[in-house]
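stuck on this fold:
=====
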Amino acid sequence: RATSYLPVIDLLKAYFHIDERDDTRAIRAKVTGHLLTLDEALKDVVPPVLWLLDALPEEDGLWVLEPPQRRQVTLDAVKGLLLRESQVQPLVLVLEDLHWIDSETQALLDSLVESLPAAPVLLLVNYRPEYSHGWGGKTYYRQLRIDPLPPESAEELLRALVGDGAELAPLKRLLIERTEGNPFFLEESVRTLVETGAIAGERGSYRVIKDALTIQVPATVQALLAGRIDRLPPAEKRLIQAASVIGKDVPFALLQTIIEDDEGDLRRGLAHLQAAEFLYEAHLFPELEYTFKHALTHEVAYASLLRERRMALHLSILETLERQHADQPREEVERRARHALGAEAWDKAATYLRQAAQRTMARSSYGAAAGLLREALRALERLPETPDTLAQAIDTRFELRLAHIPLGRYQDALAVMREAEGLATRLGDRARLGRVLTDICARLRNVAGEHLQAVEVGQRALAIAAESGDRELEREAQYRTGQAYFAIGDFRQALDFLSRCTEGAGEGRDQPSPLFASWSHSWLALTLSSLGRLVDASAHAQEALRIAEGADHPFTLAETLTGVGSVCLAQGDFERAIDALERAGVLIREWNLQPWAVFARLGYAYTLSARPVEGRDLLEAVIQSATTMSSMGVGRAMQLAWLGEAYLLEGRLDDALERAQQAVSLAQRHQERGHEAWSLRLLGEIASHRDPPALETAQAYYREALALAGRLGMRPLAAHCHFHLGKLFRKTDQHEQARQHLTTGTTMYREMDMRFWLDQAEAEMRELE
């Protein structure tokens, strides 16, 4: 019911006149021909439409896009097509049963609704009360509630169904009371009375055969339907039950295959079920298809089957689909998965559910994909434990982790990988265990903030890579472990690991992918920047950017621009920093990527470039919305410290102090020594800005930050501490100490080419002279 894009796909098939007999070539011809005839400007719409219809050529560039990018392109394409068609002729779009809608179709509807006022399009939808949407406030939206009929309307309906004879009045009162005005319940009740002989005659002119006081009307429409189905002749009951296992929509050919009745008998049985208004013909062309009149009828018929019979029918349908659609496994995978589950064929169910999840995830419907993968895990749990089922259970958890992350379910992703670790250990599969450990290393760092544990897990993964000679695993483990060392402020170790990740890039067969190389160069630039090797940092940041721009990969490009902006921030080149970070921000918004690393740094760049209000607003938004402990080297502690600095520059010293203290506490709790050092420096700044300055407090914080920066090799921070100590001593007329610190700070700024702060330090020196 919630298959990704299913209503959109059905709409497109109808629009392009695509039927089940069309192969890939025919689908491409119909779509391309129609779109280019409609408007040659729609050529860019062709690939997303073909992708939805499973007819996109493998060499098309749409495949290289990340799922979020492909999702946005697809939504824009379908919306653009509908709006363009509405310029040719007014459109009436009808979508039913929105309570079963998938998230991707919902996203399309939400986008389309915004464009309706300017387009000749009428959108008609129906849904149950539990469905919710955000259109209620639109002036061009109107809701027509279908409530139970009031007594007078129910009386009018019954007059049309049974007649208006005086002897029918007690029966009508009984039916209205029992059904509470539900029209479907009323119709089914009348049919039950006819079938049981309680009334006789023709529609609109029935006569009562039994005393109304003796007539029993079931308390629920489900019980009434169950009774009607149970009273069917055995062959027809068996037919409607078999149809219910196929689904709400019932292709005649498939039903004929699993029933194995003579075609004449089958058609007669279906005619009787139509006359009883259980089913009706939905399509005659290209293939005959029936559908249940009401979802409740389908549900009750299905529930009336004994478990063994239901399983046997599901298995028969599954085997038929496998035979009939052997050349179209991708298109049929959701149906196969559903019938494999119903047949309790757990091995096939697990396989098809995983395949269905992969298709769903490719369409960015991550919630639905996660649900399918959880079902796959439950299916695997029903199978005997073997090396193969254990391996499948691990791999399925890898896939489930990929579905959790875009949904922001980071703790769930970590929990799934912890389960996979236990399974890989039990299986004794060192290769899979190594992959699991590298992923856990990443989650411990950026989700849980357990950086020391991340280092330990990363080292275990490296040991496995060394013993197996797996270069790809080794490179990934080096990268994740280097990030963990960065998080705890061990920048020298981080430099060692991240440098190894970039070795050999572009040389020979055993080279990292371009994206991995770009990420590695970015993180290496961040590390070098923290150590004060800003020229080298800038070179690696630019190399990362060069690779990302060539790869045409928005997430990687946004991340590398963040790296460029970070290095420029460290250099004091705020104009270039803001330019890079704002470019990254455009990508973040356009492709709906994770924004925290970009916007946190951009907020700090605004703060340092005399735009503290903009910086403060952006940093406050980041802190309120960020759902991970760390993103692109920016932990929550650093975000708090930057916000504190924005408050300081606005003169809000108490707010600044609160944020700085929170930052120190959080950094200490998570062993983020680099962030702790920066936050201590901020505490010194706040104390020095008091009126009068809290000199001893400020000195103590600056010296503590300076000592920690020295142990960690953080030369830019050490230079800042010397600079601020020099300013503090100059203000208090301690000229010798001021000269010592300002000289040291000036020298370090010059060596690192930090021109912005060098100019300020030299100005302080001139004031001192």
